[in-house]
Amino acid sequence: MLFNLRKSVLEANLMLKEYGLVVFTWGNVSAIDRSTGLVAIKPSGVEYEHMKVDDIVVVDLDGNRVFGELNPSSDTATHLELYSKFPNIGGIVHTHSPWATSRAQAGKSIPTYGTTHADHFYGEIPCTRPMNADETQNDYEKNTGHVIVERFESIDPKTMPAVLVHGHGPFTWGNDGKDAVYNAVVLEEVAKMAFHTELLGNETPIDQHLIDRHFLRKHGKDAYYGQKK
């Protein structure tokens, strides 16, 4: 079932190790087939080095397992909530990468300090509010998705494919699993740059006109970065 999707999700999960975003089993990648509403996701607690295509679990948007013998990621309900509420995304990544996670643990969004940030994220990378006791004790993973969606009430997830969950860690998304991994790598680099920028004494974002120029030249309707396809 959905072999190509599962294969792509396996490859995307292995990229987390390749780019140093995870240790042990601290992360997961999923992707959705919008035509069927089925999601392929990493199995829970399985080491990356031992994963095979048939280990990738397929679930529906209600969380019912439709393929695979292993349990899906413990973060599955968060992924499903984002797929349900953000209909234009095709892949999701969650890691505990150190620079982005440090920011989440501090409860601090990442201002747009420079053009590297602006090339990829249109404005400040948001951090969610802390979750309350009821949210953590009941349907914790689904409620993690809820607080992300709540934070994006006035933010377009297509122009801001990343979020920091307060006290937890980062989630990123993209057109597919590998695109979401790309955004996770960029987020980690941007979080590291932000730390050093603040350490050097600057906490002033760049001007909006410079943010607009850098983001829109790559992602706007008249984008001119790169080669025409």
Secondary-structure map:
Layout: H1 3-18, E1 27-33, E2 38-41, E3 57-60, E4 65-67, H2 76-85, E5 91-95, H3 98-106, H4 115-118, H5 133-137, H6 140-151, E6 162-165, E7 169-174, H7 177-199, H8 208-219
Antiparallel strand pairs: 1-2, 1-5, 2-3, 3-4, 5-7, 6-7
Strand order of the largest sheet: 4-3-2-1-5-7-6
**Helix/strand order:** HEEEEHEHHHHEEHH
CATH homologous superfamily? Answer: Class II aldolase/adducin N-terminal domain
- Which residue ranges are poorly predicted, with pLDDT under 50 across at least 5 consecutive positions? none
Question: What is the correct CATH architecture?
Answer: 3-Layer(aba) Sandwich
Shape: globular
Q: How many whole angstroms does the radius of gyration measure?
A: 17 Å
The share of residues in extended strands comes to 5-15%
Instruction: Give the end-to-end Cα distance, rounded to a whole number of Å.
Output: 31 Å
CATH topology (level 3) name: L-fuculose-1-phosphate Aldolase
Structural class: alpha+beta
Average of the residue pLDDT scores: 97
CATH class: Alpha Beta
Please report the total strand number as a whole number. Answer: 7
Q: What is the count of helical runs?
A: 8
* Most strands sheet: 7 strands, antiparallel
User: How much helical structure, as a percent, in the residues?
Assistant: 25-40%
Number of domains: 1
Task: Explain what this protein looks like in three dimensions.
The protein has 229 residues and is α+β, with helices and mostly antiparallel strands. The chain has a single domain (3-219), classed as L-fuculose-1-phosphate Aldolase (3-Layer(aba) Sandwich). The protein is 40% helix and 14% strand. It is built from eight helices and seven strands. A seven-stranded antiparallel beta sheet has the order 4-3-2-1-5-7-6, with helices on both faces. Strand 3 and strand 4 form a beta hairpin. The longest helix has 23 residues, at 177-199. It starts with a helix and ends in a 10-residue tail after the last helix.
